[in-house]
Automatic annotation (TrEMBL):
Belongs to the DegT/DnrJ/EryC1 family. InterPro entries: DegT/StrS_aminotransferase (IPR000653), PyrdxlP-dep_Trfase (IPR015424), PyrdxlP-dep_Trfase_major (IPR015421), PyrdxlP-dep_Trfase_small (IPR015422). Keywords: Aminotransferase, Pyridoxal phosphate, Transferase. This is DegT/DnrJ/EryC1/StrS family aminotransferase. It comes from Clostridium tanneri.
């Protein structure tokens, strides 16, 4: 049995008529850049997340670069984040010549270890970028307390966190991205809410930040051909917005199905002594964008899965402090031991709403077969 790590075609085939109509309507009307569906999507995202403003942009990476600019993560300022993430969470800081200051991750959640942040704060620190990875949010209570105490801006990299909600010690659940000063989502095709190409979104509750974001996405123009800032060209395609509007209608159902799949894995693998399944920390609603295990002999297991035509992924094989592009920061092996250890053990198994229980059975049986060899 071949099990894909990810596929968009099952969902497309299930809802073919809806997707086709959505895309063909855009072509028939011919408004390709910031067309009416983009505005509709922004409204729908505001409603879904509870944020006051939503601004659609061309990708999650662009969203991070633009928000870093807006929040003043530039010109030698320090920004605290974790090295165990996708490149874009840190390159957005470096792009504007701010300095990434890394803090190691919590070994259970893989998110920034909030107990190690304060010791890294200096008079030059401008902000914190927590990344809500894989299935759960970072401890936003602690992060917002530190930000208030030290007057720091918080940019939530919620690229992977669509649908995740944090309650913590608060009185209600708040959607990822809506707690800090600004938050961003990626709608890269594999993400929980995925487009049929690149797409991203910025959310904020602050009117001024929203106003500036809207200008920056169209070259810094307040009105056409009148430029207030040197901005960007980062607009969401109308066609991608049309696809996302179809998918958003089924979002809660998709999230529920991901949870069911995660539970299938947990039931089948929790007694396997060679594997560790990460736990969820803090009062929050997780969303299983990725289902990870920490595996002994990870690379041999990965090769065995491949032999058996099972897709997997390794997020992230090399922490950012050890990447060549950040060598100028002067880090060495051993600086962030938890990130380094997790990079060597982590393995993501196939998870998407359309995967079948039979396929999950096959994946789990193959894993068990590997360890009983
Ligand atoms: C996917 C991702 C991004 C980048 O999003 P794109 O839309 O691919 O540019 C940024 N940060 C994290 C944590 C991601 O997973």
């Amino acid at each position: 049995m071949k099990v894909n790590f990810y596929t968009s075609t099952r969902e497309y085939n299930e809802k073919k008529a809806e997707f086709d109509k959505a895309v063909l309507d855009v072509m028939a009307k011919g408004s390709f850049i910031l067309g009416p569906q983009v505005g509709e999507l922004e409204e729908a995202i505001k409603e879904y997340t509870g944020a006051k403003h939503a601004i659609a942009v061309a990708s999650g990476t662009d969203a991070l670069v633009m928000t870093s600019d807006i929040l003043g993560f530039k010109n030698g300022k320090e920004v605290i984040t974790s090295p165990f993430t996708f490149l874009a969470s840190t390159s957005c800081i470096a792009k504007h010549n701010a300095k990434p200051v890394f803090v190691d991750i919590d070994e259970e959640t893989f998110n920034i270890d909030v107990n190690k942040i304060e010791e890294k704060i200096t008079s030059n620190t401008a902000g914190i970028i927590p990344i809500h990875l894989f299935s759960q949010m970072a401890d936003m209570d602690k992060i917002m307390d530190l930000a208030a105490k030290h007057d720091l801006r918080v940019l939530e990299d919620a690229a992977e966190a669509f649908g995740m909600k944090w309650k913590g010690n608060g009185s209600s659940y708040k959607h990822s991205g809506s707690i800090g000063d600004m938050g961003i989502f990626s709608f890269f095709p594999t993400k929980t809410l995925g487009a049929y190409g690149d797409a991203g979104m910025i959310i904020t509750n602050d009117d001024e930040l929203a106003k500036k974001t809207k200008m920056l996405r169209v070259h810094g123009a307040a009105k056409k051909y009148h430029y207030e800032y040197i901005g960007y060209n980062s607009r969401l395609d109308t066609m991608q917005a049309a696809v996302l509007l179809v998918k958003l209608k089924y979002m809660n159902e998709s999230i529920k199905k991901r949870e069911i799949v995660a539970n299938w894995y947990k039931e089948r693998l929790s007694h396997c002594e060679y594997i560790k399944i990460p736990g969820i920390k803090g009062d929050q609603n997780p969303v299983y964008y990725v289902f990870n295990i920490l595996a002994q002999k990870r690379d041999e297991l990965a090769a065995f899965l491949k032999e058996n035509e099972i897709g997997y992924s390794i997020y992230y094989p090399i922490p950012l402090h050890l990447q060549n592009c950040f060598s100028y920061l002067g880090h060495k092996k051993g600086d962030f031991p938890v990130s380094e250890r997790v990079s060597g053990e982590i393995l993501a198994l196939p998870i998407y709403p359309e995967i079948t229980e039979e396929e999950v059975d096959f994946v789990c049986e193959t894993i068990k077969k590997f360890y009983s060899k």
